[in-house]
């Protein structure tokens, strides 16, 4: 399975094995993946449901030359999805897969209401239709790497929405945004500021969903609720964070108190629910 520090390795291995052996087989029909197939190939997922989670293993099937079996299976990986995340509507999907030698479910899409671009692993591509509608519902959750860090309210947070927008783009390395940020703030070199923000973003933003790379994010916000969810014999906590005007689902190893301001880092995972 792809690296996921949230779910204990023995548990994820057990359910990935069950997905391989007992999972419901579904052919991947979405055209982006279908177009990568050669003649005589199929891409399938085997899906195993466990309470609020789904474990899905993917296989590339090739017609076998062995007369005793129809297909040769090439195992591509196992992915966990959370079915109780925050539902968002997305458009303009772009999947990052280039070929099956480097299998990835990383997608980039525009959130309809805010216009923000999110990058996340879409765990259940086997449930996608051949083509997507204009607005696509996805349950999104952050699978946190470790324990949430309690952080104090910033003494002098950035309030100007234009500066916040430029700063987020600059953190991603956008050269034009860095130049514009220097002009707006009347500074000669933004590199020192960006270094400080990367190290301690909680001191600059009241709340933030900051993209790091691929499907990884740092999130700062206040806990609205935190409820236990069980995965086999492991207890996790489905926590709702109020951040950037969104109630974002976060899966944590430990419970946090309502109203606590926290910072977490983890992977954004999507689960198609259309």
Structure write-up:
The protein is α+β, with helices and mostly antiparallel strands. 18% of the residues lie in helices and 44% in strands. The strands form 2 sheets. Strands 5, 6, 7, 8, 9, 10, 11, 12, 13 and 14 form a 10-stranded mixed sheet that branches. Helix 3 packs antiparallel against helix 4 (175-185). The model has no long low-confidence stretch (mean pLDDT 93).
Question: What's this model, at a glance?
Answer:
The chain is of the alpha+beta class and 274 residues long. Helix content is 18%, strand content 44%. The strands form 2 sheets. Strands 5, 6, 7, 8, 9, 10, 11, 12, 13 and 14 form a 10-stranded mixed β-sheet that branches. A 4-stranded antiparallel β-sheet has the order 1-2-3-4.
Q: Percentage of helical residues?
A: 10-25%
Mean pLDDT: 93
- Through-space gap between termini: 25 Å
Using DSSP, what is the number of strands? Answer: 14
**How does the overall form come out from the CA principal axes?**
globular
Class per helix and strand makeup:
alpha+beta
Strand content: 35-45%
Radius of gyration of CA atoms, rounded to a whole number: 21 Å
Order of helices and strands: HEHEEEEEEEEHHHEEEEE
Q: Which spans of ≥5 residues are poorly predicted at pLDDT below 50?
A: none
The biggest sheet amounts to: 10 strands, mixed
Number of helices: 5
């Amino acid at each position: 399975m792809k690296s996921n520090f949230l779910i204990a390795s023995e548990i994820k291995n057990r359910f990935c094995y069950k997905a391989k052996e007992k999972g419901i087989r579904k052919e991947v029909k979405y055209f982006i993946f279908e177009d990568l197939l050669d003649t005589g190939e199929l891409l399938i997922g085997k899906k195993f449901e466990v309470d609020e989670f789904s474990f899905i293993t993917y296989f590339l099937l090739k017609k076998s030359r062995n007369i005793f079996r129809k297909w040769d299976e090439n195992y591509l990986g196992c992915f966990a999805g959370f079915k109780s995340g925050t539902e968002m509507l997305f458009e303009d999907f772009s999947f990052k897969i280039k070929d099956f030698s480097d299998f990835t479910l990383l997608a980039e899409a525009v959130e309809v209401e805010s216009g923000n671009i999110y990058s996340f692993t879409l765990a259940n591509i086997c449930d996608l239709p051949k083509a997507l509608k204009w607005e696509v519902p996805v349950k999104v959750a952050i699978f946190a790497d470790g324990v949430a860090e309690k952080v104090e309210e910033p003494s002098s947070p950035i309030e100007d929405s234009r500066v916040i927008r430029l700063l987020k783009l600059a953190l991603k390395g956008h050269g034009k945004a860095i130049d514009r940020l220097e002009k707006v703030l009347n500074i000669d070199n933004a590199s020192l500021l960006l270094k400080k923000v990367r190290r301690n973003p909680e001191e600059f933003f009241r709340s933030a969903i900051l993209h790091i790379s691929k499907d990884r994010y740092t999130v700062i916000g206040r806990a609205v609720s935190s409820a236990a969810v069980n995965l086999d014999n492991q207890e996790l906590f489905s926590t709702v964070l109020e951040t950037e005007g969104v109630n974002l689902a976060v899966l944590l190893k430990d419970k946090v108190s309502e109203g606590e301001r926290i910072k977490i880092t983890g992977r954004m995972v999507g689960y198609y629910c259309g």
